[in-house]
Write a structure and sequence with these properties.
This protein is α/β, with parallel strands linked by helices. Helix content is 48%, strand content 11%.
Length: 232
């Protein structure tokens, strides 16, 4: 959320609005050995098996910068989820995590939908990921939000949208409505700081913090702030 909507969240908080940011896949990894893919990611992130604990801490810092209330669901990240049949890792490669949610995870979508319904106020405005880039956990979150059968806004997933702008234009052509929420210079600075708080994730997308800050500024300026979408 900080990556895609950090400036919007900060602006809302400054207006006195109550904003909650839910991390859908924030559960601890299971006991036992992890897939080689997960181990390689831990090495890249320089976190070891403490990746989830570290990232929850980073998220709390990020939410404090934005002025949001953090919330965490106990479902593990896709790289840690296993088949209940044979214990095999469900998403054990880069290509697997950018594919669709596996059919056997349908009960997980239903579980998430029920939990969201329990947590969300009846009058809440809900903003879910478009799932640009196809990350399986973003798809999971989108499917669960859609299962609520409540009005939804969607955000374009940063950084994936930075190379997929044409997909947004297809939304316009198919009748989707968009809304641009301006972000002030102070809001942009808070947005950049909120993303910087997720230190273990920076290397996945950028070479350094300066590159990240430049990318967020460029995206904000080109979009005119944060651009949200609503299905017809």
């Amino acid at each position: 959320m900080a990556l895609s909507c950090g400036g919007l969240v900060w602006e809302q908080a400054q207006r006195g609005e109550a904003v909650s940011v839910y991390t859908i896949c924030a559960g601890d990894p299971p006991e036992g050995p992890l897939s080689a893919f997960a181990e390689n990611l831990h090495e890249r992130w320089q976190t070891g098996r403490g990746a989830v604990t570290q990232r929850r801490g980073e998220d709390r810092t990020s939410c404090a910068v934005m002025g949001a209330n953090p919330g965490y669901f106990p479902i593990p990240d896709c790289i840690y989820r296993r088949s209940e049949v044979d214990g095999a890792a469900l998403y054990a490669s880069e290509s697997a995590i950018t594919g669709p949610v596996l059919p056997l995870e349908a009960p997980l979508v239903e579980q998430l939908c029920r939990e969201l319904e329990r947590r969300l106020p009846k009058d809440a405005e809900i903003v879910a990921p478009l799932a640009l880039g196809g990350h399986v956990d973003h798809r999971l979150a989108r499917q669960a939000a859609q299962g609520l059968e409540r009005p939804l806004w969607y955000y374009a997933d940063v950084p994936y949208v930075l190379s997929r702008a044409e997909e947004l234009e297809k939304l316009v052509d198919s009748g989707w409505k968009d809304a641009i929420i301006p972000v002030s210079e102070a809001g942009l600075a808070a947005w950049q700081a909120a993303v910087a708080a997720h230190a273990s994730q920076i290397s996945t997308f950028w070479s350094d913090m300066d590159s990240m800050r430049a990318a967020i500024r460029s995206y904000c300026e080109k979009s005119g702030g944060v651009r949200l979408w609503q299905a017809p």
